[in-house]
Amino acid sequence: MPVEQARQFIRHFLFPLSGQETVGLHEAFLRTLAYDVLSPMNVPPQDNSAMDGYAVRHADLVNDATKLRMIGSSFAGHPFSGQVSPGECVRIMTGALIPDGCDTVVMQEHVKHDGAVAVVGSGHSPGQNIRRAGEDIRQGATALSCGQVIRPAEMGLLASLGLGEVAVFSKLRVAIFSTGDELRQPGASLEPGQIYDSNRYSLYGMLGELGGVEILDMGNIRDSRDSLKAALLDAAAKADVIITSGGVSVGEADYIKQLLSEIGEVVFWKIAMKPGRPLAYGKIGSSHFFGLPGNPVAVMVTFQQFVRDALRLLMGQQPKAVFTLKALCASNIKKALGRTEFQRGILTQDENGALIVHTTGDQGSDILSSMSKANCFIVLPVSQGNVEAGNSVDIQLF
Ligand code: AMP
Ligand code: MG
Questions:
Q1: Which atom of ligand 1 is nearest to 246's Cα?
Q2: What are 235-249's pLDDT values in tens digits?
Q3: How far apart are the C-alpha atoms of 37 and 34, rounded to whole Å?
Q4: CB-based burial label for 9 (10 Å; 0-12, 13-18, 19+)
Q5: From ligand 2's centre to the CA of 178, what distance in Å?
Q6: Ligand 1, from 179, 195, 249: best to mutate by most atoms within 8 Å of Cβ?
Q7: Which of 59, 128, 142, 357 has its CA 20 to 30 A from that of 294?
Q8: Distance between CA atoms of 345 and 360, rounded to whole angstroms?
Q9: 247 CB within 6 A, ligand 1
Q10: What is the pLDDT of residues 64-93, one digit of tens each?
């Protein structure tokens, strides 16, 4: 299946899970809003000063050196309570309420101050340097929409509305396990033929970065049909989504695809991409199953190209637009026709601002250091052949 078709498939096959809960604002970080937030108030709540200076009545400013009597001060959190009459002004600080009777703030640099008298020049516009009530968000307006991820700006925005808690979609329960008799845990020692299980850790990181996920780490499962079947059934009973790595290819110890068709349904299992051709997607009961390849780079690429969007959809988010940029390729790249390739690239900008990309070097799907060095994918479409240095290529920033 071509890459774009698999993406479309995921968009049409997956629906948001419906559960939701109300959480405090700290807990809401990186979660997904489950409702449209209508602003309960104006932000800012009242007119206030954008400057340190003097609150005046604009009609008073009749010549180059109007003398005004200073009758008090308005600080942020300590408003001036009196009424300002013609010929009077109030010292004011940024964020302080505009006193009754005043309609303009003159910044302090434009005022000479002599005891209780402020001397104000001309050329000031009525209403200047005042932040109006509701100029950020009007009471009753839709401040944030259902499906919005709560990032740092949304954290602050919700707080500015005075909301101490919000309704978000439930955490997605994602079970992960690795497969392979050769795998050992970091910290243990290796026998000949063994390697450390890295996939579960890169997966853990990518899931964590997504937020809103409760990770059920089921460890490493041996290459035995029975153990794998038991693990899949166990995971399906506990989790909304199951993500495994390895054993999904056509080797003699690769049972995942067979098992998926036996205990669930296979929707697709091969994508015309490199790295990551074997990628199984299907359902086991009501759980969504992603069988990622074993090779460490393939795990990260397939997760980032497919699984992440699928999880976002299940969490009630809109799929993110995938932007591609054009960059000048500084490396020669060997590329066969027939598959979309996601080469790992390092993007830089030359002194004229042009985008230049070169590969991270060896592009084997076991070269995990390529993912660490890269800051983008160089995306080479199905019909693309070799790339010569100096050609333009598409890149996707990480
Ligand atoms: P498989 O698809 O199971 O045949 O695995 C393909 C390659 O990826 C083999 O070289 C495996 O040893 C390697 N591999 C599989 N799982 C992991 C893992 N969790 N961590 C690191 N390498 C792995
Ligand atoms: Mg294996």
A1: 3
A2: 999 999 999 999 998
A3: 9
A4: middle
A5: 9
A6: 195
A7: 357
A8: 5
A9: yes
A10: 999 999 999 999 999 999 999 999 999 999
